[in-house]
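FIELD: query
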Amino acid sequence: MQHCSASTMRRAKVFGAALLLLGALPLLAQSSAPAPSSSTPPAMRDVVDEFGRTIRVPQLPTRIVSLAPSLTETLYALGVQDRLVGDTDYCDYPPDAQKKRKVGGPINPNLEEIAALHPDLVLVTKEINRLDTVRALDTLGIPTYATDARNVDEILSTTQKLADLLGVPENGKTLTADLQSRLSALHARLEAIPPSRVLFIVWTEPLISVGKNTFIADALRKADAASIVESTQDWPQMSLEEVVRLRPEYLVFAESHSDTGSREFEALSNRPGWNILDAVRNHHFAVISDAVNRPAPRIVSAIEDLARQLHPAAFQELPAPEKPSTPAPVPLNPPAAAPAHLALNAQPFSVELACAR
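FIELD: result
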């Protein structure tokens, strides 16, 4: 590719990393940096993560490393960003997250950098972090909590479980109640409107979309958009012939900058054969925030945005939704008791490598 936009280069870097064969990750026997001294050991408790592992964590974790952009966003949404001591190169939202100490990418983070931060908790996501990373951190004695939200409802429940884990359950209840209220209001407004048939485009060369069982496909459904993709693979590659057969009414792009999505639509429109699509002939496309790519609270704003673009008549009397604000940092007050419902469904740990979330 001769001339790439910053957004395209960023996506190319992510997908290039995703296509690398998984190599063996050396396990570090110990950290070379001394641990901070403490006269009184912190109170500990046992919790069960979404991998079904029982892990021992401090009663109130205060030094957290996030190995996924979605987890970093969730920490900010819960108001515990002051406890975040490190995150990945791809953690770019909110902008303040870019100032945090970087520990590499989600796929192959720098374990020495992580250990040097002396975290008492590392957050990982089942989708993009490697099992080797979790094992190596276990060897170092650093607890890891794994999440695995596969649909929008699970994104909200995972948000609450993280709030409980971090000792801010009321913040979680307030946040998830607001998100659920917005989703319910959206459903009530759209339930009588037939869903639009859409093709969500993750990548253009080759053409890659999202499978019907992904959280992104579920987000589309909540925006009253029916994905035309029938595949159960998370990131299916599609041919033009298949797209023509499935006849999408809209092409949907997720971009950090909306003009990039517009350019991609124009580029697709000029390809041989694409002008046979009604979506191309009618200039029907939608561009939404890349928040839809991340299983974090901000995905609700992306859902609302897409619904407005696909069904504008349903929102004529409503103002545009405000951008979510970042809560003020929460003071470190120990929780009264560990919530009893932290035990989650155990599922095999598999690493899905596609977009950095």
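FIELD: remark
Confidence is low (pLDDT under 50) at residues 1-35, 334-355.
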